[in-house]
UniProtKB/TrEMBL annotation:
Name assigned to this protein: Ribosome production factor 1
Domain Brix: 116-299
Lineage per the UniProt record: Eukaryota, Metazoa, Chordata, Craniata, Vertebrata
Protein purpose: May be required for ribosome biogenesis.
Pfam families, per the entry: Brix
PROSITE patterns assigned to the protein according to its UniProt record, in alphabetical order: BRIX
Source species: Glareola pratincola (Collared pratincole)
Gene name per UniProt: Rpf1
Residue spans of biased composition, Low complexity class: 1-15
Length: 323
């Protein structure tokens, strides 16, 4: 005999159908009993999964039957490929862009006239995790020196950096002992970028890390910096590393921009055979989000800003990106 529980489902031993038949307007949330509701929801999810797999199997069989005549696979829609067009997107062959690159603040570096010399410093009296992060960052960026601040203002540090021929200043800020911000100032004339930092992982915290990095100059990869602003930020990050990578070290520093988040990874690649290449992550890793870009060196009071991230005005669409 079939027993109905009032929820539009029939349950009763072996004769009950496998397929869960809900009435068209029925919602699982209408079931008052919590345990019953949870059970019905799991059955419904299971049914959805079965239907999805069956449809996938059917499509695969159709493609195999058609062979070469099968239509091309549909490209899934993602936030990135549905991106709202940005009028400042850079065309690499544009003469105006080429002129800007030849005359901007980073031109001497790309022309190999200056060698980067970086000062890495911290917020006042840093704690253990920030200290370790700075030490590891200095092994990634060649010719970089770590200095721990003791109450000295940034405006006083900058003239001293310029006098000692430093080309860039990196400041790692922290909150509750966790690194949460990065200020990058190009010396002597700027610009200055302020990033929010998140997802910091030190070498110890990354699974299957390789041995410590060597002193070889790494290659630098910049991905998806397509707009004028992205181009400026990408050139700024690239100019931290010497422009002549030593390929014998097989080390790669990657700045990958995705949805305006800049993911940093540091790898070593290993040739397993003529065709196979393996990669080891060396660490550290972190994620940056641009908050502002300022003309000139760091000046929080009177500095002239080229770009500031204003969430309420700018983040009107999830598909609108600025880098």
């Amino acid at each position: 005999s079939m027993v109905s529980d009032g929820s539009g489902l029939e349950d009763g031993g072996s004769s009950a159908p496998e397929r869960v038949l809900f009435p068209p307007t029925f919602s699982v949330s209408e079931i008052k009993n919590k345990q019953r509701r949870h059970f019905m929801f799991l059955r419904w999810k299971q049914q959805q999964r079965k239907e999805k797999l069956a449809a996938k199997k059917k499509r695969r069989k159709e493609r195999e039957a058609l062979g070469d005549k099968a239509p091309p696979k549909a490209v899934p829609k993602t936030i990135e490929n549905q991106r709202v067009y940005d009028e400042t997107t850079v065309d690499p062959n544009d003469e105006e862009i080429a002129f800007d690159e030849a005359t901007d603040e980073f031109a001497p570096y790309f022309n190999r006239q200056t060698v980067p010399k970086i000062l890495i410093t911290t917020s006042d009296r840093p704690r253990g995790r920030t200290v370790r992060f700075c030490e590891q960052l200095s092994t990634v960026i060649p010719n970089s020196h770590v200095y721990y601040r003791r109450g000295l203002a940034l405006k006083r540090i900058i003239p001293q950096c310029i006098a000692r021929d430093f080309t860039d200043l990196i400041v790692i800020n922290e909150d509750r002992k966790v690194p949460n911000g990065l200020v990058l100032s190009h010396l002597p004339d700027g610009p200055t970028a302020h990033f929010r930092m998140s997802s910091v992982r030190l070498r110890k915290e990354i699974k299957r890390t390789g041995k410590e990095p060597t002193e070889h100059v790494p290659e630098v990869i910049l991905n998806n910096f397509t707009t004028r602003l992205g181009h400026s930020v990408g050139r700024m990050l690239a100019s931290l590393f010497p422009h002549d990578p030593q390929f014998i070290g097989r080390q790669v520093a990657t700045f990958h921009n995705q949805r305006d988040y800049i993911f940093f990874r540091f790898h070593r690649y290993i040739f397993k055979s003529e065709k196979k290449v393996g990669i080891q992550e060396l660490g550290p890793r972190f994620t940056l989000k641009l908050r502002s870009l300022q003309k000139g060196t760091f000046d929080s009071k009177f500095g002239e800003y080229e770009w500031i991230h204003k969430r309420r005005e700018m983040d009107t669409s999830r598909r609108k990106f600025h880098l």
